[in-house]
């Protein structure tokens, strides 16, 4: 079946540290991959996406590369800020399908 | 422009009751999807509607139903509530709804507590 596995949290970092949140997927066909962010008390927001192998999605200093050979879509940021504290969800969607499959989420805490 | 709106914000019901949740998509968006997010987990797909027709359904029992109105707003109904239905219910809208790569815009959710 189709599924997404992401690293368990919480992840606690100091401001300006490097961030990596691992995400791997299992899918039939060729999925599109997404990272969503959920700030406290808010709904999900699309952070970035990649629709085919080797694509790199980027936004607000975050980036992730669609690696078909390792079925991965790891999220990275070179220097995190306190305002990046949130829950991050990796997700996939299948071309021609109608649903997005989410991972369990990784909570990030950034300390000043 | 207004984003996706959902009502009510919070809701408390008892087992066996019925509940109706409402969603208004972004103006011009014709597709609405519903997700259930249990505490500590990722959202689970329930339904997608496009142009008032059901386009997809997740692995949820028949107690869950939905509809989309001519103005593209949507309602999610849950009958015979169980304790396990306690969750944050998210609505998402997208412009085209034909491809999963279309960006989905999520509302803030309705927090349902079943006692």
Question: Can you walk me through this structure?
Answer:
The complex is a heterodimer of chains A (112) and B (115). Chain A contains no helices and twelve strands. By secondary structure, chain A is mainly β. Chain A is globular and about 45 Å long. Chain A starts with a strand and ends with a strand. Chain B contains no helices and eleven strands. Chain B has strands at 5-7, 10-13, 19-24, 31-37, 44-50, 53-57, 64-68, 74-78, 87-94, 105-106, 110-114. Chain B is globular. The relative contact order of chain B is 0.33.
From the structure above, extract its key features.
heterodimer; A: 112 residues; mainly beta; six-stranded mixed β-sheet; four-stranded antiparallel β-sheet; 12 strands; 0% helix; 53% strand; globular; B: 115 residues; seven-stranded mixed β-sheet; 11 strands
Which class of secondary structure composition applies to the elements of chain A? Answer: mainly beta
Task: Find the biggest chain interface.
Answer: A-B, 26 and 25 residues
Low-confidence stretches of chain B: none
Helix content of chain B: under 10%
Fold blueprint:
The complex is a heterodimer of chains A (112) and B (115).
Chain A: E1 3-6, E2 11-14, E3 19-21, E4 23-26, E5 31-38, E6 44-50, E7 56-59, E8 62-65, E9 75-77, E10 86-94, E11 100-102, E12 106-111
Chain B: E1 5-7, E2 10-13, E3 19-24, E4 31-37, E5 44-50, E6 53-57, E7 64-68, E8 74-78, E9 87-94, E10 105-106, E11 110-114
Parallel strand pairs in B: 2-11
Antiparallel strand pairs in B: 1-3, 3-8, 4-5, 4-9, 5-6, 7-8, 9-10, 9-11
Short note summarizing the structure:
By secondary structure, chain A is mainly beta. Chain A is built from no helices and 12 strands.
